[in-house]
Design goal:
Number of domains: 2
CATH class of the largest domain: Alpha Beta
CATH topology of the largest domain: Rossmann fold
Radius of gyration: 24 Å
Strand order of the largest sheet: 2-1-4-5-6-3-7
Largest sheet: 7 strands, mixed
CATH architecture of the largest domain: 3-Layer(aba) Sandwich
CATH superfamily of the largest domain: P-loop containing nucleotide triphosphate hydrolases
Shape: elongated
Number of strands: 7
Order of helices and strands: HEEHEHEHEHEHHEHHH
Oligomer: single chain
Structural class: alpha/beta
Number of helices: 10
Helix content: 40-55%
Strand content: 5-15%
């Protein structure tokens, strides 16, 4: 009788093992890391190399001098193996937060440091522990872990995974990884969520401390504010000169202000959109 039962038990164990593999896949093999930039994907876990990073040169970023200098020095420190802080770039939309991260990365590499950048989406934050294990094992290579447009809604639990990046749990954050994030919100949470937590909690300060303190875990807070009209025009002139777009100052000013008016705002993004339109009208390429 046991001979008849044993094959069934063996089959059941095999099915259980397959199910466990699907739930918790085996660790990903160490990927080749020859590229300068990667995007983290899951199912299966992998670091996909980026052949060409979409970015602008650091000198073309106008009106962010203090943030530029601070982030550049922090990144140079990190690339040299010196202490460096995680950085939160927060503030007005379209003012070059993500562009600055990518431009600083390129500038540091131009200094001769083989610094890598890995883009992590907010939706993949729950898998960050697995990513950190891969990056830790890749030492002495050094990595900027970059999350663009980071924010959390009232019922979002992904913020708990962020602590693994900022604090690193019992192992600590890998020495060869620094985390840079951009957000439109200084505290990463919507204001109404914070107020609702305070109003309904027995101890309001304790109820919101865990969520609001996320921002406090970033050593650098770099604020980005709406640009002035002069800065907006300087951005456009800088792009035109860099890409050889012929246009006189009076025409540029008139068209750029009209373009700004149709968008209802001015920012680095709006400036770039005008330059893209101008290049198209003149039959020229950018890059």
């Amino acid at each position: 009788m046991s001979a008849k039962i044993f094959p069934k038990a063996k089959l059941s164990l095999a099915r259980i093992a397959d199910a466990l593999d699907r739930i918790s896949p085996p660790p990903a093999e160490a990927p080749p890391l020859a590229a300068e930039a990667f995007v983290w994907h899951t199912a299966p876990d992998r670091l996909d190399p980026v052949e060409r990073v979409s970015r602008v040169d650091l000198p073309l970023l106008v009106g962010v001098d203090r943030s530029r200098d601070t982030l550049l020095q922090n990144t140079l420190n990190f690339a040299q193996g010196l202490p460096a802080n995680n950085a939160l770039l927060w503030g007005a939309r379209g003012m070059g937060k993500s562009s600055l991260v990518k431009a600083v990365h390129a500038a540091v590499r131009a200094e001769g440091f083989d610094l890598k950048i890995v883009e992590l989406s907010r939706e993949d934050l729950p898998t960050v522990a697995r990513l950190l294990s891969i990056l830790r094992a890749a030492a002495p290579l050094r990595f900027i872990l970059f999350c663009d447009d980071l924010s959390f809604s009232h019922d979002d639990q992904h913020y708990k995974s962020l602590k693994a990046v900022l604090d690193g749990g019992i192992e600590g954050r890998p020495d060869n990884v620094v985390f840079y994030a951009t957000s439109n919100r200084r505290h990463l949470m919507p204001r109404d969520m914070i107020e609702n937590e305070r109003s309904s909690a027995i101890s309001p300060s304790e109820a919101t401390e865990e969520k609001v303190s996320l921002s406090d875990r970033f050593g650098l807070w770099l604020g980005f504010h709406p640009c002035s009209q002069d800065e907006y025009l300087d951005m456009i002139r800088g792009y035109c000169d860099a890409f050889g777009l012929p246009i006189d100052d009076d025409t540029l000013r008139a068209e750029a202000i009209e373009w700004q008016a149709t968008r209802g705002a001015r920012s680095g993004r709006v400036a770039w959109q005008y330059v893209t339109d101008l290049a198209g009208r003149k039959g020229m390429t950018l890059g």
